Structure prediction request, 203 residues.
Amino acid sequence: MFSGIVEEAATVKAVERKGSNVNLTIECPFANELHIDQSVAHNGVCLTVVEVLPDNCYTVTAIQETLDRSNLGLLAPGDLVNLERSMLMNGRLDGHIVQGHVDTTAECVKVEELDGSTYFTFKYSVSPEMVAKGYMTVEKGSVTVNGVSLTVCDSTPDSFRVAIIPYTFEHTNFRTIKEGTVVNLEFDIIGKYIARMAELREL
Prediction:
């Protein structure tokens, strides 16, 4: 379980494909605090640490299902990836409930600088089946973009906009997002449960 509060925008050091899986080696300041089997969110995707390496590096493995649903398969050495360790249950929930299970990807279609903040508009493929599962945004609701907990504005059936303050811009990989960049989306789990209950009532 995560909260969508990114700890570090870390650097991808190596990408190695093994069969249908991809091993990602990440360099970050807290790598020496990690241990094998620990869960860490990478651009919002929960992955298990499989090796802790020297020089502040560690390795995780992404399977084909994860690669199909996320932007992890697009990562290359030198790219920045947002990291968050799993939430401590005795702490404050500063973001919102994030599972680390990415639902789909979206494309950035517009970047605007407005009054000190940066507004990003994202567009994603939508279908009646996705909406029925709660894969949608609502005005002033929560959404996770590349692992960052954000508030939705200007929600449409297939797009939404978010406002990024300077601190978040500088401390996450939002500073590298431009028009055409593919990001990971996790929709609000509460909305998914409500959609599922409504679906079951019709049976």
In short: The mean pLDDT is 95. The longest strand covers residues 8-18. The helical segments are 64-69, 128-132, 166-171, 189-201.
